[in-house]
Amino acid sequence: MSTKLLEVRNLKQYFGTPKNPIKAVDGINFEIYEGETLGLVGESGCGKSTTGRSIIRLYDITDGEVLYQGKNVHSSKSRNELKQFNREMQMIFQDPYASLNPRMTAGEAISEGFNIHHLYKNKSERNEMVGSLLEAVGLNREHANRYAHEFSGGQRQRIGIARALSLNPSFIIADEPISALDVSIQAQVVNLLKKLQYERNLTYLFIAHDLSMVKYISDRIAVMYKGKIVELGPSDEIYNHPIHPYTISLLSAVPLPDPLSERKRKRIHYVHEETDNNASMHEVYSNHFVYGTSDQIHRWKN
Amino acid sequence: MSRKLLEVKDLKINFKTFTGLVQAVRGVTFELYEGETLAIVGESGSGKSVTCNAIMKLIPEPQGIYAGGEILLEGKDLIPLKERDMTKVRGNDIAMIFQDPMTALNPTMRIGNQITEVILKHTKLSRVEAKERALKLLELVGIPMHERRYKQYPHELSGGMRQRIVIAIALAADPKLLIADEPTTALDVTIQAQILELMKDIQKKRNTSIIFITHDLGVVANVADRVAVMYAGQIVEYGTVNDVFYNPKHPYTWGLLGSMPDLQNNSKDLLRTIPGSPPDLTNPPKGDSFAPRNEYALAIDYEKEPPMYKVSETHYAKTWLLHPDAPKIPVPESVSKRIEGYLREAQTNVN
User: What's the pLDDT tens digit per position in B48-67?
Assistant: First the structure.
C-alpha cells in the first residue's frame, strides 16, 4: 500500500446563515493515496465541487480537518508556508472558456506562478520553462504568444493543465475538466492526464458527473449525495457491484454506446431514505464502504 | 413504411466572414419519416447545428447564404419561403428545443405566458382555452404542481425543470417535427435520462418526428432509429443505429466510437483519439476532408472526394475504403473488441 497523501476528516462546509445553514458538505471522510486517482461523482448540487474547493483552501471550512502529508491545510500559516502549500496542490477548472484571463497570452498565464514564486533568473529561462510545459501538454512553443480566444476548447484546457503543472505539484484537483469538451477531445485530454500522472507521479482528485469517464480514469470512486459520501470503493467494485441504491440509480442512468442494451434500459428511480444519527460508513467488503444504518446496509446487501 | 416528412437534398450553407467564405454545410442529404428519430452526431463545427438552423430558416442573412439545395417539408420547399410565411411553419410544423435551458427562456415572463404565447399565435383558441392547454402541456412534460409552476418565473426552477418547460413550449402548437439541438448536454446524467424518456414518450403519444443533435454516442444509442455522422459540413456515414454502432465503415466513426471508454470489457488501455483538429472550412482540403486526420488514408484521399458508397439498403458511408479495389482494412481492434462484447452480451441476454 502506498502512503497516504491527503486525509479528509469530518469535513463540513456550510453556507448561508448559521441559523439556517445550507449544508453543502456535511461531514465527509476519505483518504487519497500517493499516485492514485480518486473519482468523485454525484449530481449537480451534491457538494462535489465544494469538496474540491474546500480541500484547496478556496473556502474557509466550517468544521473538520484536511491533512496534506499529515499537515493541517486549514491551520493558520505564515506566508512562506502557504506558498509552499500552494506549490504542492493545484486545480484544473471546468470551463476552459472562463478560467483563462482573456488579456493574457498563454505564456503569461502559465508563467504567473513562476513570477509569484521567483523561479527564474532571466527571461530566456522563463521562456524555456513555459516552452517545455507547453510541449508536455501537447502544444507548440509558438503558442506561448497567443491569446486565449485564439485556441479551441481542447487547447484551452491543455493550457489550464499546463498552468496547474507549472509549479510541479504532486496533487491535482480536476473539477469536471472534460465536461465542456467534445467526445474526441475529451479522450485526448483524459489520455494526457493519464500520461502526465505516469510521468510525474501525480495524484488526482477527479470530480465529474460523467460516470463512464470517471470509471475509466479512477482507481477508486466516491459517490456523493446531498453533501455526504454514500459509497466509496475500488472503481470496478462500484461499477459492477454497487450497493447503495443511489449508486445503483446513478449507474442505471449512464447511456452506453450500445443500441441493443439501450433499447432495454430500465432506469431505476432513487427514493431517498432519511437516515438518523445511527448512520455511518460500513465496510461492506474489503475497501468498499457504504453509508447507512446497519439495518439499511443489511437490506441493501441482499 | 411510414410517410416521408422531411427531405433535405444537397443542402449547402455558406457564411461570409472577414477571413473569407466559410462553407459550413457542404451538400447534406437526408430524409426523415413520420414518428422516427434521426440523430446527427459530430464534433463542434461539423455543421450539425447549422443544418438544423437551416431547416428552421434561422440562418442570419445576409452573412449566411443558402448556397444550394432544397429543404422539402411534406414536399414543399422551405428555402424560397418569405419570412412572413416561415413564421407560420415555425412552431406550427417545426419546433426546436435548444441546448441551454438557462438562456432559452425569457427571464422576465411567467412560464405560463411563455407557453400560451405560442398557443395564441398559432391556434384560434381563446385565452382561457389556451391556459387550459398550457396546463395540460405542463402535466404532459411531467411538471409537478403545474398550477403553481404556471405562475412562476424561470429562475425559480432547476435546469431539468426548465428544459421540460422548453419542451412544453416546443410542443405547444403540436408540431410534426421536433428539432432538439443538444437538449441534454447541459444536464446531469439522471436528469438527462428523464428528459430522454420524456421525449421518447411524447414521440410515442403524438407520432412526432425528431431530429436529435448530440455529440454523445451513448445518448444516440438510447434515442435514435437512424444516425447521420457529420464531419466538416458533410454526412460521412448514414444508417440505422445498429448499422452504425455494430458495423461502422467510416474511419471517423471508428474514431468517435474509440474515444469513449469501454466499460464492458473493463479495458484500461489508452483511449483511441482522433489526432489533430477539424479542417478550416474557408478553404476545405482537396479530396477527402478527413484524410489529414485519418491513419488509414489512401493516396486518392488527398486527390479526389469519395462518393457515398452503399453498404446495405439502409447503410451508406463516404470513404474510399469501400471502393472494390481499396485495401481491406479491418475495424481497429479496440473498436471491434467492444462491438463483439456488446453483441455477445445481447446474445446471452436473449438466451
Answer: 989 999 999 999 888 899 99
pLDDT confidence bin for B133, thresholds 50/70/90 = very high
Contact status, residue A184 vs residue A168, Cβ threshold 8 Å: no
C-alpha to C-alpha distance for A186 and A165, rounded to whole angstroms:
19
Asked whether residue A282 carries a pLDDT value surpassing 90, the answer given is no
Distances (CA, A) of B181 to A94, A168, B48, B97, B193: 22, 41, 9, 6, 16
Q: Which residues have CB under 8 Å from A77's CB, separation 6+?
A: A85
Domains of chain B: 4-224 (3.40.50.300), 242-350 (no CATH)
CATH topology of domain A4-97+170-301: Rossmann fold (3.40.50)
> Which site among B199, B220, B273, B343 would you substitute to test the A interface, given the most A Cβ atoms closer than 10 Å to its Cβ?
B273
**Residue A240 to residue A246: CA distance in whole angstroms:** 14
For residue range B268-304, what is the model confidence (pLDDT) as tens digits?
Answer: 777 888 887 788 888 888 889 999 888 888 999 999 9
Confidence (pTM): 0.87
- Cβ B193–A215 below 8 Å, yes or no? no
Domain range list for chain A:
4-97+170-301
Mutation for A interface: B271, B274, B334, most A CBs within 10 A: B271
**B149 secondary structure, DSSP code:** H
Could you give the CA distance from residue B45 to residue A268 in angstroms, rounded to a whole number?
35
Closest CA to A46 of B189, B293, B192: B189
pLDDT band for position B266 (cuts 50, 70, 90): low
Residues of A in contact with B274 (CB under 8 A): 184
Task: Say if A271 is an interface residue toward chain B (CB within 8 Å).
Answer: no
Band of pLDDT at residue B265, cut at 50, 70 and 90: low
Give B222's contacts in chain A (Cβ within 8 Å). 255, 262, 265
Place of cell 435520462: B193
For residue A25, what pLDDT is reported? 92
Q: How far is A128 from chain B (nearest CA, A)?
A: 25
Residue A98 has a pLDDT of: 84
ipTM over 0.90: no
Out of B197, B268, B274, name the one closest to residue A184 (CB). Answer: B274
Separation of CA A260 from chain center: 33
